[in-house]
Write a structure and sequence with these properties.
Rhopdopsin 7-helix transmembrane proteins; single chain; 319 residues; globular; mainly alpha
Amino acid sequence: MIPVNESKPNEFTVQGFSDLPHLQFPLFIAFVSVYLIIVFSNLIVLMSIILYSHLHTPMYIFLCNLSAIDISYTSTILPKLLAMLFTQCKTICFLECFIQLYFFIAFACTEFLLMVAMAYDRYVAICHPLHYSILMNPKHCAQIVLAVWAMGFLNPVLHTILTANLSYCRSHHIEHIFCDLAPLLKLTCSDTFTIELWNYIDGTLLTVSAFILTLISYVFIISSILNIQSASGRRKTFSTCASQMTCVILFYGTLICLYMRPISMYSPEHDKFLALLYVVLIPMLNPFIYTLKNEDFKNVFKKINKTLFCSERYIKGDQ
């Protein structure tokens, strides 16, 4: 790549999947399908919780927020990626790039903080059921949700400001599928020590501590599950927690691998694959993992199917 002299470029070019020219259209179709699945499945979960009053409990309020976050942070990446695949125009303006960076980090931070809250909610429900209504009353639940969103959106402010004020004189070509922190830092000829140091401090204080707290909650949950006398009850509760833990470990694991490392270890092909895990796979899996084995949601879906069936019969009867 030929070096350029502009320290503040008007636009960047995003590599995307340019190294796979024969797969541009199939990839476009695949990502459109995945994006529609993510949006509609999470919207169904979100609207079900809003419309059915018996789901207005802390667990489902957290799940409602999780669906909103999954739709939002996927929407910061996929629409632009789809436009690039369809039009073959790989440019993104400077301001748009850093807006994308900010909102992606903000929604990602909000999600893993929300996962801590969800793990704590399940810990209280399973390990301290008699105190659940006191510890997770509506006021406390609202305070937790507000704190999660506030911390999530404040966290990337410094990252974004520091990164936007770097000098980009090496190249304007981002070797990634979107404007992410590591590929942007690879383009600068400025000293990145301050940003990398802040990244490690922030990652340790927020990401790693959140991951540890989540795991501790699940350790206590599993310990309580093992004490359940009924084998069927133990198996049912454990299978639900195991699927949720899989998503938690996958989400935290990919973020820690990508952001808790020196910039010199950045690998475009490796990072694209990991990015697809948390941008596409996890938001697509979450609504199914949290609802398929949930009796409340099964009852809601039965009511919806019954309502649709009755409406269809009524329409046919009128005809």
